[in-house]
Write a structure and sequence with these properties.
Length: 422
């Protein structure tokens, strides 16, 4: 990398409840250093706590910004001093429902980190999650025909920048290697469960779990880069010079049996929004390792309470997402059919599958999955309203911040042009 290319301010973004471990932060920092990429900032959005000793050690390696999610006072004041309206700031950074429970939606988490990166002058923001690592799981067939698994090191920052610096590319992303979020399971009613969760595409994969044990692997060939609208927040690059083409992260929450459930899919709307604004998103075929259940290489077993808990809350997260997701896709002309029939089919399938999965897992919590969908569906109007407020507030915020960045850029070389020239 040339000296001019190094002038681009590349920041890492991470969201977490607590900052209590050096890994995987140090894994990504050392990986960037090895391949000659200075990291401008490590920005961590958190809600519940921070280990001072861990933070001190991280700050010996990189400039660290920690931001409390849910209305960090310093971040709010900085935005207000820039001319932002308080109502817009609150709409983007806070969720009234989750605030009552001392939580934050995933959308609020990522928006907090994103705004901090913009205010600090980052040119590129690369998100990774706390169970993600900068290496690939590669499968190679041995002489006896059985696959061998090995690790392959990758240039995480370099691969994202290679494509983020191309014309009109606003976002880069990719899937993961590692165990799939749904562990191996097979019972009468599996297809109905997956339809109810809007995960029916995983049926064939799960039915052949005896062959692969639900382990996703990468390859060591040439990257198969392609356009995409499917983004994954834990392996995501953003070009912050294209603020007018970016949309906010958005997700919701709902209360199920007295517990606040965070819906998944905070990154779902970004892809379609970028394309509507004239930008492009690329899947860069960089399947970084996801230690999904924290026990790799042990095959996840649903008899393990921790594995079952992870699967249960994933189910509730998908259920909370699905009414809004289907409304959005139909509204944008990206999905055929009508909302009522789509949700009715999911409700019917969940009602039939719930007793069967409950018996299979010997876990009564799964019996109430249909109730969760009924609650999420009932909350759809509220969630649509929240989405409109976030989008409108983001438009106001972007106009303000983009104008200020533009004024600054007239005094400095544009980072994308510098990187291209390099």
């Amino acid at each position: 990398m040339s000296a001019t290319a190094r002038d681009a301010k590349v920041s890492f973004g991470v969201i977490t409840k607590c900052i209590h471990s050096l890994s995987p932060y140090t894994d990504f920092i050392h990986n960037a250093r090895k391949y000659g990429h200075p990291i401008y900032k490590l920005i961590i959005g958190y809600t519940h706590g921070c280990d001072k000793e861990v933070l001190d050690q991280l700050r010996q390696l990189v400039d660290v910004d920690i931001v409390r999610v849910g209305g960090d006072e310093n971040l709010v004041h900085r935005l207000l001093r820039r001319g932002a309206v308080l109502a817009d700031v609150k709409a983007i950074l806070e969720s009234p429902l989750t605030r009552r429970f001392g939580l934050a939606t995933y959308g609020c988490y990522r928006n907090t980190v994103l705004l901090q990166a913009i205010l600090n002058g980052s040119d590129y923001l690369l998100f990774f999650d706390t169970d993600i690592y900068p290496k690939l799981l590669i499968r190679r067939k041995s002489d006896d025909g059985f696959p061998n698994i090995r690790w392959q090191e990758i240039d995480f920052v370099g691969r994202h920048l290679e494509y983020l610096t191309r014309e009109d590319v606003v976002i880069t992303t990719s899937d993961y290697s590692g165990y799939y979020i749904i562990p191996p399971l097979e019972f009468d009613g599996l297809r109905e469960l997956l339809i109810g969760l809007q995960k029916e595409g995983a049926y064939e994969f799960l039915m052949s779990a005896d062959k692969h044990r639900c382990l996703n692997v990468s390859h060591d060939g040439k990257p198969r880069v392609r356009e995409t609208r499917k983004l994954l927040g834990g392996n995501l690059g953003l070009d912050l010079s294209n603020l007018d083409k970016l949309a906010p992260f958005f997700s919701s929450a709902y209360v199920h049996r007295g517990e606040c459930i965070l819906s998944r899919g905070e990154d779902t709307l970004l892809g379609p929004a970028v394309y509507r604004r004239g930008g492009r998103c690329l899947d860069i075929d960089l399947l970084i390792f996801h230690n999904t259940f924290g026990t790799f290489p042990v095959v996840p077993d649903l008899r393990d309470r921790n594995v079952r808990d992870r699967f249960y809350y994933s189910c509730l997260g998908w259920i909370g997402r699905n009414p809004f997701l289907n409304w959005f896709l139909i509204e944008q002309g990206l999905q055929k059919g009508d909302l009522e029939s789509t949700l009715l089919r999911q409700e019917e399938c969940l009602a039939r599958a719930a007793p069967k999965v409950t018996a299979y897992l010997n876990d009564s919590r799964f019996l109430f999955l249909p109730q969760a969908l009924a609650t999420a569906r009932k909350n759809l109007g509220r969630v649509i309203g929240e989405h409109h407020r976030v989008v409108d507030s983001w438009k106001n915020m972007v106009k303000l911040l983009a104008r200020q960045r533009s004024t600054k850029s007239r005094r400095e070389p544009a980072s994308k042009a510098v990187l291209k020239a390099a």
